[in-house]
Amino acid sequence: MSTPEPASSPAPRRAPAPQRSKGFVVGRVAGAPVIVTPSWFLAAVALTFLFLPSVQARAPHLGAGAYLVAFVFVLLLFASVFLHEVAHALVARARGQKVTELAVTLWGGHTAYTGGLRGPLDGILVAVVGPLTNLVLAAGFWFAFQASPVLNVATYLLWAGALSNAFVGFFNLLPGLPLDGGQILESLVWAVTGRRTTGTVAAGWVGRVVAVGVLVWALVLPIVQGGGLDIMTVVWSALIGAFLWAGAGAAITNGRRREAVEGLSAGVLAVPVLVLPLGSTVADAFSARAAADRPRRVVVVGHGEVPLAVVDDDAAAAVPEASRAVTQVDAVAVPFVRGSEVATGLAGTDLLDHLAGRSGGARLVPVVDGGRVTGVLDLADVARAIRAA
């Protein structure tokens, strides 16, 4: 499960995670920590007891050893899930993403990455490689099972490994978020419509259909086949269905939020400015502001209209009136971070990525148009606009 919204068993999370999952760091892959979360231990115990009756039925002579065999199968299953996540991480990094973590969790696992998908192809490649890894593993387990000359516990584990990997692979290819197949559907709709948000919302709604389908399958199929309901199957299906429903709903919300964020531009959010050359005085700044038709920030520029600093209004007001004509304006100005200037037409996630990577922690950055500074962007205003969106 890849998590820009963004691969595991049975359902992946796609969205890049802003915070690291809590758990034990057991290694690193693609430059990111591999984390085993506390919930994994609960899953390992539950799946061991779930698999135990099958082992006891096929190998009654094992006695207490059946617990060990069941646990070995669980370890094989999670190893397959881990390889699924490794595939996501390696392809995500190859496509220019920064992988932030690989986590093994109650639901299998997820891979989180940041950087933003550059296009539909990135989304398809990152998503599809996880399930394909499981299908390749399923084929390998199956051929090893077929080649085994005897039927014993080891060959039974090969058969179970083939079946579980095939299930994880095909299940993750179902076309609804938060599954990998949902990310593929999202990317295909994105490619056709040119709007990623349209793809996200569509794949989210299909994900809700898949969530309902999982529960219907657990309840209706046994009745159609003339059998009774298995309570464990119903419980697990309900849990998985609830997880998928919540993930699909989150995907729809994130898609709509992304659409709102895409409407935010530097030019609209910026405060207009008055430009003063380096060497001007505080008195010049007050005179310029008094003549302005509306409130404006004062920006100090150097040679070639390069924005150097923005006047701190409180600091300027603190200069005694008698000293303003001899106090240079740069003495009461806050320097801009070099290279932090934003083009007036920059918008959406491109704007946010620029601010995250180039602002250097500064609150104020200059907005430029054709090499001329036209405004000052306050990151607090950007944050407020995002929350409102």
UniProtKB/TrEMBL annotation:
Topology in membrane: Multi-pass membrane protein
Transmembrane segments: 30-52, 64-83, 124-144, 156-174, 205-224, 231-252, 264-287
Organism expressing this protein natively: Promicromonospora citrea
A GO cellular component annotation in the UniProt record: plasma membrane
Keyword Metal-binding recorded: yes
The protein's name: Zinc metalloprotease
Residue ranges occupied by any Peptidase M50 domain in the UniProt entry: 152-205
Top-rank taxon, per record: Bacteria
Cofactor names: Zn(2+)
